[in-house]
Amino acid sequence: MIPMSPRIKSFPETREEPRKRILAIPFILIFGGLGLALLHDSLRFIGILLSFTGVLTVFLVGMVFADLWAASRRTKDIIKAREKRMHAEEAVTPDDPFIDTLEDSSD
Q: Quick check: pTM over 0.70?
């Protein structure tokens, strides 16, 4: 048997833009760590680590969100261009189906 080749899908698979909830993760880490640091002296080290993790996560989450947003926009643009091409091809149907459109008529 011949194995079937995998179908290539555009990224992301949905037409929806990414949710903005992911942008809240760094702020939750920063303020949660700050709260732990101010709550008690024994929790100060863990709170500072969480806050520092939140600061570093700002860049990671921002880059991932920007990449997903750009991919979503690119996918929408590709879909719009494909739909325009399909509508343009449907509009250019010859009246006589037996006319050879590839033949040169400069004779």
A: no
